[in-house]
Every structure is written in structure tokens, then in C-alpha cells.
């Protein structure tokens, strides 16, 4: 199927230290796009030779392959910020977003666009859980469980907006660019698709099942910190849909309360360990457990709740926090 002039395509690939994947990715994308006029746009946050490799590979193909290399303070918003930069850079009618590690098969990219045109959808999600989709490429049972938990949490948080989407955690999707107000998006971290759904009501959604592949090269960017940021971001997005302009303040209050709740657990575990395992005096155990939970609460609050520029050093902020506690 060759699309008309009204349906131009840009494939946006956010990358970070993926030099070993570039040539294979571009080759497979170029083959699957065939005679279709479409460009490939890399938005790169790498600290290795990936941008040089992209430039080298770009010269080997007739297809337009472009690069935005973000450095220093330009690397805002993580992977989601890179995707937003790509969306702003192109004026294509359809934008396909996919990872650069080849866990998203390039052969599915064009199918996402043709499905969107055929169904009239605004967003077409490549889903691991629809049709013939599979999540077998996740690195371990733990990652698979975490991914399933994150998906369930998102759908519980946004039951209406995600009613037609089985895989809101997918990083592989096509979006009709005119359907999304880019100025409303403020992505942080990995889950830019969730950001689009949360900030853009009444999107028409279609899905294409795909098999999540094993990583070709490089290392996964997922981490405990990303998981914590995801939970915080989910709360912030929910607050934004309810409270509008006041959502930032509400999200901070909710985040502070959530951190406090985890601090109770940290305190209880520390108290049990010091009293029952180390067999110290109960009063001493209570004092030490309080220091553990205070430190725990400070780290999470300072890193995840009150982000941005801060006054004083980390130690001075910790001492002030400890005195208040």
C-alpha cells in the first residue's frame, strides 16, 4: 500500500547509547517502508559514539535519515522529552514512535500507519497484549511482572481514557500529529504514550498486536528510579485531569503523603530488625528506626517530590528535614 501525499510519515527513534543497533534498524525500516516517502528521525541523548554512527549510516541510504543530538541541559524529560522534540521537529501527518534497541520490530511500523488510516484512528498502539501480540522479549519474569503491574495501575488510574488500549505502557505507536496538542504534553521518563492519553481526551484508538523482541544490543534503561518516577508521574497526570492548574500543588501533596506512607513501612522494618535480630534495647531500636525512616523519607522527597532547583547543599537540606521530623 502506497500512501498519498496527504499521509506523510516520520519515524521518530529516541536513542541513548545504541550504536550497535543503528545500521540494522535503519536497514529494516528502509526495507519495510519500501517505496513509501518517509523519513527516519533519531533524537539522540547518547554519551558514546551513537550520533557519529547515525551520521555514517545516514549516508548509506537514499531515504532521509536525520539526527537531533541533545546535549547537556537540552536533555530534558528523558526519553519522553526526546520523543516530544521529535514530534516538534517534523510536520509529517503521521509520526511513528519506536525504540532503537530492536525490541520493536521495524516491520510493524508501516502497518501502524495503514491501520490508522483504514480505521480513522488518532493513535494506533503496537500492543503486546492484543491479537497475536507477545511480551516474551522482556528480560526476566520480574520485568514481565513489573510491566503487567504498571499496565494494570495505569488502566485503574485512567479507566475511561485507556478503555480501548490494552498496552498503555507500549513505547511503540503511531499518532496522527494533528490530533495531539504538543503544547499540552510535559513528558517525564519512559511512558510518553500514557502522557498523550492523559493529556488528550477523546482519542480514537486502534491496536496492532506485535511480538516484543529480545534486545539486539545495548542495555535496558529501566531501573528502580524509573519505576518510582513512573508512580509519581501517574499521580501527577491523574491530578492534572482533576484539578487542572492546581494539579502541580496537589501532586506534590499526594507525593509527600505517599512517601510518608512508605516511611511507616521502612520504620517498622528497621524497628523489627534492630530489636528482634540485633536484640538491642527497645528504646535504642526505636531511635535508630526513626533515623532510618527519616533518611528514607528525605531521599524520596528530595529526589521525587520536590524536584527542580533547590537551595543549599544536600546535607543542609537533610539536616533541616531531620530537625522537622
| Strand segment tally | 7
Low-confidence segments = none
Q: What is the number of helical segments per DSSP (H or I, 4+ residues)? A: 10
Sheet/helix structural class: alpha/beta
Q: How many angstroms separate the termini? A: 65 Å
The overall pLDDT average reads 84
Rg (CA only): 22 Å
Main sheet properties = 7 strands, mixed
Give the overall shape.
Answer: elongated
Could you tell me the strand content as a percent range? 5-15%
* Topology order in helix (H) and strand (E) letters: EHEHEHEHEHEHEHHHH
| Strand order in the largest sheet | 3-2-1-4-6-5-7
Percentage of helical residues? 40-55%
What does this 3D model show about the protein?
This protein is α/β, with parallel strands linked by helices and 325 residues long. Helix content is 48%, strand content 11%. The protein has ten helices and seven strands. The chain has helices spanning 22-33, 50-58, 78-89, 109-119, 141-157, 192-199, 224-243, 247-277, 282-305, 314-324, and strands at residues 9-15, 38-44, 65-69, 94-97, 123-127, 173-176, 205-209. A seven-stranded mixed beta sheet has the order 3-2-1-4-6-5-7. Strand 2, helix 2 (50-58) and strand 3 form a beta-alpha-beta unit. Helix 7 (224-243) packs antiparallel against helix 8. The longest helix is centred in the C-terminal third of the chain and has 31 residues, at 247-277. It is elongated, with a radius of gyration of 22 Å. The N and C termini lie far apart (65 Å). The mean pLDDT is 84.
Amino acid at each position: 500500500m502506497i500512501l498519498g501525499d496527504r499521509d506523510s510519515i516520520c519515524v521518530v527513534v529516541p536513542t541513548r547509547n545504541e550504536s550497535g543497533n543503528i545500521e540494522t534498524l535503519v536497514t529494516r525500516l528502509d526495507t519495510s517502508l519500501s517505496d513509501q516517502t518517509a523519513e527516519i528521525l533519531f533524537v539522540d541523548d547518547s554519551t558514546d559514539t551513537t550520533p557519529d554512527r547515525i551520521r555514517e549510516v545516514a549516508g548509506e541510504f537514499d531515504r532521509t535519515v536525520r539526527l537531533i543530538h541533545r546535549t547537556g541541559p537540552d536533555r530534558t524529560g528523558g526519553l519522553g522529552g526526546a520523543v516530544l522534540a521529535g514530534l516538534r521537529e517534523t510536520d509529517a501527518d503521521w509520526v511513528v514512535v519506536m525504540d532503537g534497541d530492536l525490541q520493536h520490530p521495524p516491520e510493524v511500523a508501516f502497518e501502524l500507519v495503514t491501520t490508522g488510516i483504514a480505521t480513522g484512528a488518532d493513535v494506533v498502539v503496537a500492543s503486546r497484549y492484543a491479537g497475536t501480540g507477545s511480551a516474551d522479549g522482556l528480560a526476566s519474569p520480574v520485568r514481565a511482572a513489573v510491566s503487567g503491574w504498571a499496565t494494570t495501575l495505569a488502566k485503574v488510574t485512567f479507566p475511561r481514557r485507556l478503555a480501548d488500549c490494552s498496552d498503555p505502557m507500549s513505547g511503540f505507536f503511531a499518532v496522527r500529529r494533528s490530533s495531539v496538542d504538543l503544547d499540552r504534553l510535559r513528558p517525564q521518563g519512559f511512558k510518553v504514550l500514557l502522557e498523550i492519553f492523559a493529556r488528550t481526551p477523546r482519542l480514537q484508538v486502534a491496536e496492532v498486536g506485535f511480538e516484543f523482541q529480545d534486545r539486539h544490543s545495548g542495555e535496558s534503561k529501566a531501573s528502580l528510579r524509573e519505576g518510582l518516577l513512573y508512580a509519581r508521574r501517574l499521580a501527577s497526570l491523574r491530578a492534572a485531569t482533576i484539578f487542572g492548574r492546581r494539579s502541580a500543588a496537589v501532586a506534590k501533596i499526594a507525593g509527600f503523603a505517599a512517601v510518608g506512607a512508605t516511611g511507616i513501612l521502612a520504620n517498622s522494618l528497621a524497628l523489627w530488625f534492630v530489636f528482634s535480630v540485633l536484640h538491642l534495647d527497645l528504646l535504642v531500636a526505636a531511635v535508630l528506626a526513626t533515623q532510618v525512616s527519616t533518611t528514607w523519607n528525605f531521599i524520596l522527597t528530595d529526589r521525587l517530590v520536590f524536584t527542580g532547583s533547590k537551595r543549599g547543599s544536600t546535607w543542609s537540606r537533610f539536616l533541616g528535614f531531620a530537625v522537622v521530623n
